[in-house]
Amino acid sequence: MPVLTGAILAAFAAYAGAWYLGWIEGNFELLLFAASLVTGLYWVAERWHFLPARRAAAARLEQEAEARRAEQERLGLVSDASAPVEAARERLLMQPWWLDWTAGLFPVIVSVFLLRSFVVEPFKIPSGSMIPTLLVGDLILVNKYTYGLRLPVLRTKITEGTPPRRGDVVVFRYPPKPSVDYIKRVVGVPGDEVAYLNKRLTINGQPVPTRALPDFFDEDAMRYFPQFEETLDGRAHRLLNDPDRPAMVLGASDFRFRDHCRYSVEGVVCRVPEGHYFMMGDNRDNSLDSRYWGFVPDANIVGRAFFIWMSFSKLNRIGSFQ
Question: Does the keyword ATP-binding apply (predicted)?
């Protein structure tokens, strides 16, 4: 078993190392599932086989020591061997390294796996597409149950939950490459006609209320951008617009349901198909979103982002957000 366990741990380490070096495209959810399964098997084997076997060996040792003491007393000999026997008993009961690194880690690994799969999952913001709401490097939590629970790895929905609403900040699997997670704001739900023309958002023919705010200073770009407050379904959030960027959507791909969209020099108008959502970043002129690659299927939804648990750039940003 030590050799087999060493090989299994080496395989996990090789996978993680190749992922870290960029040689393969890793899947953390699958890695956690495999680790939970393997350590769970060791945990069951430890509880029902290896631990009883060690306890039985310790009991035999104590019986043999007691028999020797009784024989020595019968012969009139005096010997105090309790300390060596106790030390030997502790060595017999001690969990070997290959069980310590498998069965011993199972409760922690399976707890993380279940928490991450069904309650909350941490993410790190990789880009500036959601500035000013979320900054690059922000560490956030994503609610995994509001929109319905999904089986890990298989991602099959097992409860319906509440559908995403306009204004929700959502993490989802990027439709052109589902192994990559994206984060954007829902601006259109199934059946909506979403128009983004001349940098103004309109839903079903009704302009979304917007008001000007003081300019936002982007510390990375070292410049100010016009900032606005937009209200979707009664919830306000901030957004940026770059006056130097054209309203026209350049470089839109040939995505599924593209015939639901009309592009012009003013922007784009799309009718959201059933079971899909239209996503946009709050940094409107620096966001690769539904305007370019299309609609997000409900099956791609991961969860609703709701809390910044760490922001190394500004600690006062920690907390919930809209």
Answer: no
